[in-house]
Amino acid sequence: MNTLRQWWRGRWTVPVVSGLLILASIVIARAFGSDAVSDAAMVAAAVVAGAGIVVKAVRALTAKVVGIDLLVSVAAVGAVIIGEYWEAAAVTFLFAVGHALEAATLSRTRSALAELVAVAPDVAVVLRDGEQVEVPAGAVVVGETVLVKNGAKVPVDGEVVGGTGALDEASITGESIPVEKVSGDRVFAGTVSRGGFLQVRATGIGADTTLARIIHRVEEAQDAKARTQAFMDRFSAWYTPAIIVLALVVGLLTGDVVLALTLLVIGCPGALVISIPVSVVAGIGRAAKDGILIKGGEFLETSARITAVAVDKTGTLTKGTPRLTDVVVLDPAADRVTVLTWAARAEAGSEHPLARPILDGAAAEGLATPGLPEHTEPVPGMGITATSDGRRVLVGNAALLAQHGLDDGGAAAVAEELAAAGRTPMIVVVDDAVLGVVAVADEVRADAADMVDRLHAAGVKKVVMLTGDVPLVAHAVGAVTGVDDVRAGLLPEDKLDAVRELQQQGYVVAMVGDGVNDAPALATADVGVAMGAAGSAVAVETADIALMGDDLRKLPEAISLARRTVSTMRQNIAVALVTVTLLLAGVLLGGVTMSVGMLVHEASVLLVILNAMRLLRRRPEHAAARVAAATVPAPRVPQEA
């Protein structure tokens, strides 16, 4: 009974019933020669298939929208009035079949979203009062310990507090290679355990999980209109009434009502209307399955026009985890412990990313850092000044010393030598004495150089590195990665100016950064790209493009997909316009009937949809790149910060 009810409410019910009535009409006419009964069956077929069309047309009119449904409704009703029952039934039947096929194929284009929803976990096993309890995933309380066993879905966002295991994070990052998880690592709802046993402290549940935010973003993005789509909507708003006027004029001039009604059917801009949204939905859906979130159709179109990419260095081209590499003593009265201790004391009050490796280095050598300094003042682009135990401490570059009127005592030369080796040097001064130089280094990402090559292959003309680091370090990273232009020693506002300069030169600019120090440049760029967004709710919600994983190859992949999507849009528009033009010419010149015209029209709609569905296929080179990513060794040159 339930199956019958589902079928009755399904998308194919109307076309099937209408088709059977048409078949019955033809059989009755040929077998029994009963024109009255045959005509009645044909009219019934038109009513069954056309009732819904008329209802939609009336609703659209109440909203002051003249659409395709109105054209078909007028043509069908007119055909019945003048006794063209077969034409009325054929047009409405074909339109109903086309609508059902559209719905079926459109649901395929939204398959990425359906798959994301499907991976959302239903249940969770939590520890309560020392016992394992199975509860709905939404009933888990933040802070509770969730158990994830082999083969189970992770039901919450959280942090591993015990055990080890491997998780398939394809639903979040698009990467199919399982990721090893140990204590302290982050995990995401919807990922699947491929081995091991994990104890996870819940930090995000229900709508507050990364998966839920991704689903919400994809829903919004697939519904957001591209600029071309907005133009086509405005075009259709004028085109459809124009077809009605044309049909009316032709009918009055020729006195041929059938010809006028045929023009109404043939002029339906169905393929034209659907050509853009179906491409956008398919393109954004494909991107989501690959761990790339695109904000909407407008940004998809803009991404297809990107000609310059500006990238931050720290955490983008490099791993973003600098470590202490050098402690050079310059003051004869000091030693390594003294230099590193004072550097750590000053950096204890700093929010700069380079503070952590110095503090970690001091801790690794057993040096105590007595709390926060009494006073801390960051000097953008230069370093930091601090007061600790009543003494002034400077940690920064030569420009910081010059600002305070101090002689560098040869420290600038040492710093330059370290920078040439790919390290980031910082001169340490206590009161007016230059004690020495500490240096940290980061490692260039294994996929950074490949990303630059792939960006060029995808049509990007210029890749620019924007960094606040010293020029020597920046150029060392630039040499390894192969970027076209290196701009170093930049403050956040300088990065903003660099993006504007590229735009003034005629480039369409994408900016890749961490969303904090690079916020002004990200906001000004034509497309702002966030890396590793799976761990950042803000990045998922605000970035124009969010790359969920840390694989830099996803950026050229996103640009390539955007170009394919826009190309598909143009192909679809061409198919729609050529079809309508040829059909209108065929009607006016004779030879194209109402039913034949509707058949060709619906065929063009399906062709447009099927063409867009090609975007859902993963291109072979992308799959190969994912395999290669696991085997490419990281550059051995130390770098950055």
Automatic annotation (TrEMBL):
Q: Does the keyword Ribonucleoprotein apply?
A: no
Transmembrane stretches in the record are: 12-33, 39-58, 235-253, 259-285, 573-592, 598-616
Q: What Gene Ontology cellular component terms go with this record?
A: plasma membrane
**Subcellular location, record wording:** Cell membrane
Give one GO molecular function term: metal ion binding
Whether Nucleotide-binding counts among this entry's keywords is yes
* Residues covered by the P-type ATPase A domain: 120-219
Q: Which residues form the signal peptide?
A: none
The record, for InterPro entries, names: ATPase_P-typ_cyto_dom_N, ATPase_P-typ_P_site, ATPase_P-typ_TM_dom_sf, ATPase_P-typ_transduc_dom_A_sf, ATPase_P-type_domA, Cation_Transport_ATPase_IB, HAD-like_sf, HAD_sf
**Where is it predominantly found?**
membrane
**How does this chain sit within the bilayer?**
Multi-pass membrane protein
CDD domains named among the record's database cross-references: P-type_ATPase_HM
The similarity annotation says:
Belongs to the cation transport ATPase (P-type) (TC 3.A.3) family. Type IB subfamily.
NCBIfam families attached to this UniProt entry: ATPase-IB_hvy (TIGR01525), ATPase_P-type (TIGR01494)
Instruction: State the protein's name.
Output: Heavy metal translocating P-type ATPase
Q: Specify the species.
A: Georgenia subflava
Q: What is the lineage of its organism?
A: Bacteria, Bacillati, Actinomycetota, Actinomycetes, Micrococcales
